[in-house]
Amino acid sequence: MTTGKLHDYFEKFDKLRCLIIGDVMVDSYIWGAVNRISPEAPVPVFEVEKRENRLGGAANVALNIRSLGATPILCGVVGVDSKAQVFKDLLKDLNLSTDGIVEDNSRATTSKTRIISSAHHMLRVDEEELEKVSKKVSADLLTFVETEISKGLDVIIFEDYDKGVLSEELIKEVLFRANENGIPTCVDPKKDNFNSYKGATLFKPNFKELTEGLKIELAKDDFKGIVELSKKFIGTQGVNQMLVTLSEHGMILVNESDSHHVQALKRKILDVSGAGDTVIS
To answer: Catalytic positions, please?
Structure first.
């Protein structure tokens, strides 16, 4: 690919309308230092120096897509709590719409808090609901998707974190409407709904999701085995292409007849959260 061709692709991003549906969350960070052990118990005392909240999950995908120049339309669920307000304030600050965010007072807003000292992750605290959202909430999400399809969409991205927003029924309904309207679909899957995305355009599991979703054991550097497994999945699920990310081993793009391995460049990374969000964007 030439530099000019790559530039053309990025220019075309500016004209795209991308709907992202899935699990939204708040990624919170607390940075600080540990200089002593508590006199109350043999545990480190963490002294807070800085706090920060960021968009996570499907909302991070929306942010990445906006950064590339396209127009993201975010569709997800939050609770009616303090974290939901933090989430909506972040969207507002970053000029992202809240129109597709459904409030559900029966569940908590998903949040992940990472505690970091001297470039080391010490602890992660998760606050979340894993039960499927109600039929009413799913219906509200589908109504929003249908409205956006009527306005014109260039792609729909499913960002699945197994937090209950994407049920098998909702996935099926959205895929049907997307295929009916000729809209490409991209999937960032998790284990629970792994086999629910029949007919998707692009299916992007990481290695852990691939092995857990298919319940198989495979070495991460068995590239031939990964390609064979991906081609079999493409055949049974009717997806167009698979992109399997392999962390330090890069990623492999597979279709029914061909494959391409993109090697990774070595980097020293402190925080890998959101890596999959970036790839699907």
So the answer is: 277
